[in-house]
Specification:
By secondary structure, this protein is an alpha/beta fold. It is built from 6 helices and 7 strands, in the order βαβαβαβαβαββα. The protein is elongated, with a radius of gyration of 17 Å. It binds zinc ion (ZN).
């Protein structure tokens, strides 16, 4: 299952990536026609707060989810409500660029993360596109709580 969030749904896009879903987020130069084209070509469910964009997408037989609320928890629940969550996929994707992250050995990141984080974690991941390093700290547990509270 792949998604495309419109420009107004940046926070939702970030959360969908945290949960491991392939989520396209457009840059500010992309117009509606471009979003429709990407949804169609890459078979992505188009998520939008723009009623007109949703209507156009439906006329073109694209799968859509219309968002009316600005509450992020409600937004996540609307999109992922019925989908079974795979905990292994949480944090498997770069939050910034949507690339799947790779495991990196602990010795390779010495000096690249704060010492406290280095000492308190054994497993690390990195994004080969933006070189961002990820670990499953306390925020990881909080994400599980969030998932559980939603379902
Ligand atoms: Zn990245």
């Amino acid at each position: 299952m792949k998604f495309l969030c419109d420009q107004m749904l940046g926070t939702l896009a970030k959360w969908l990536r945290i949960y491991g879903f392939d989520t396209f987020y457009p840059n500010s130069e992309m117009n509606d026609a471009k979003l429709l084209e990407i949804s169609k070509n890459e078979n992505r469910i188009l998520i939008s707060r723009d009623k007109r964009l949703i209507q156009t997408a439906r006329r073109e037989n694209l799968k859509t989810i219309e968002i009316k609320t600005t509450d992020i928890d409600e937004q996540i629940s609307i999109v992922l409500g019925d989908i079974e969550m795979d905990k292994k996929k949480v944090l498997s994707r770069c939050i910034l660029c949507n690339t799947e992250v790779d495991v990196i050995s602990k010795k390779d990141i010495e000096g690249k993360v704060p010492e406290r984080i280095y000492n308190n974690n054994e497993k690390f991941w990195f994004c080969k596109k933006c070189n961002k390093i990820y670990w499953r700290g306390s925020h990881y547990e909080k994400m599980f709580e969030k998932i559980n509270n939603l379902s």
